[in-house]
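Researcher: I'm preparing a figure for a lab meeting and need a structural model of a single chain. I don't have an experimental structure, so a prediction will have to do for now. The sequence is pasted below. Please return the structure as tokens so I can convert it later.
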Amino acid sequence: MVASCRSGIIAKMNGYGCIKTEIEYIRRHHRHEIRDNQCSSSLVMFIKAPVHLVWSLVRSFDQPQKYKPFVSRCIVQGDLEIGSVREVNVKSGLPATTSTERLELLDDEEHIFSMRIVGGDHRLKNYSSIVTVHPEIIDGRPGTLVIESFVVDVPDGNTKDETCSFVKALINCNLKSLANVSERLAKQDRDRTY
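Model: Understood. Here is the structure written out token by token.
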């Protein structure tokens, strides 16, 4: 279940949309300063797995390949802390091979993760994202609401819509993979307890 929310406007996808709770989370935690030459959006994913499990994957700045299908390798320079930098190798099929990213925020109490791209051989300049993870009940079981927002420069030769569509497609792919991995791990946990 994925919904895309822009500028407080509710957009429907697959019959789901952002409701008041999601909009409030976006207002509270997903603040980006957006310049004229930038685009921004927020995406929402409901995952049938408990928050602690989903958060354990999201917070793994040093191992994004646990759920991000386009990452083939990641090396973190120094200790894992705010300001840490990772070098990510991107799998073929994307218009990039490397990305250099800095950890901006990692809040284990509020479940907030933020990173900024600071280099690499791609066109995502001044890219910044925030991911928040929230408890949710889905089909009577503990579940998770994940919200990811971003801001990025619009490259020369592209429109805001083209840039936003490209980045949203990448994030959607990552969120769907996060859901698949999390739900598989949650099922394994349930199977072990029975």
